[in-house]
Specification:
34% of the residues lie in helices and 22% in strands. It is α/β, with parallel strands linked by helices. The termini are far apart.
């Protein structure tokens, strides 16, 4: 046996013992970087409350510069605020229904003069206890409906027609969902049943799909006219938006 081979064999246990240490060091560095960036990486501006400075990191895995430390608005909340300000405002005297109402959104939508109503399947979480797949309300009840990150939890083939039914003619449904634009069709898998499996497949334990581009067909099939408001360019930098995130502005024809 050559001396080189002997030396290699002699060092093998040493190299083997170093592997756990190298793995530990890598993990420790990742923890340090995560803690460092959790307080924000760049100065941003919150259009909701006017805060200027560094946003907080949230989520798992973390999204840096995501949450305003003053009003708690996340990226999608800030995008909705911009859409309501620039693209499709809600009338000051409108009747508004808000499913799974987020506090950050409630604070800027629930203004004096509006008849603002929240709804949730859990009676403790809303003004009304409603099943979005079978809404116990009369036809044409609301001028505007907010439905952000709700449809991925439910049977949207039932929920979207119900939302259309209770919306007044000319009214707007503001809808947002987790969306992969690179997918032609939404990913659904009826064999996925447990909470752990749903978390693995759909990104959260109580989701039942990940939407693809066909969400537009699903919305139009329910009868809506569709336009979109998308986070783009400098607004993403200034306000800490998710690049390409979209709000679907779903109008019931007059």
């Amino acid at each position: 046996m050559s001396s080189m081979v002997q030396a290699r064999d002699a060092l093998a246990p040493v190299k083997q013992n170093r592997r756990p240490l190298k793995s530990f060091v890598k993990r420790l560095r990742q923890v340090v970087f995560t803690l460092r960036d959790s307080g924000g990486r760049y100065d941003r501006e919150c259009p909701v409350c006017g805060f200027q400075g560094r946003f907080l990191g949230v989520g798992s895995p973390p999204r840096w510069d995501a949450q305003c430390p003053r009003c708690d608005a996340l990226e999608r909340h800030r995008l909705l605020y911009l859409a309501l300000s620039e693209e499709r405002p809600i009338a000051d005297d409108a009747r508004v229904l808000h499913f799974a109402a987020e506090t950050a959104v409630r604070n800027f939508v629930n203004t004096p003069g509006r008849d603002y109503v929240t709804a949730d399947l859990d009676p403790a979480k809303g003004d009304l206890a409603l099943n979005i797949e079978d809404i116990a309300l009369p036809d044409e009840s609301f001028d505007a409906i907010l439905c952000s990150h709700v449809l991925e939890h439910v049977d949207d083939s039932r929920a979207l027609p119900e939302l259309f039914r209770i919306l007044k003619k000319g009214g707007t449904l503001y809808a947002m969902v987790p969306l992969v634009e690179g997918w032609e069709s939404s990913y659904e898998n009826p064999s996925v049943k447990t909470e752990a499996e749903r978390d693995l497949h759909f990104g959260q334990w109580d989701h039942i799909r990940f939407y693809g581009r066909d969400i537009r067909d699903r919305i139009r099939k329910a009868g809506f006219e569709l336009t979109e408001y998308t986070a783009f360019g400098e607004n993403c930098v200034r306000y800490g938006l998710v690049r390409g995130e979209t709000i679907f502005l779903c109008r019931r024809p007059a």
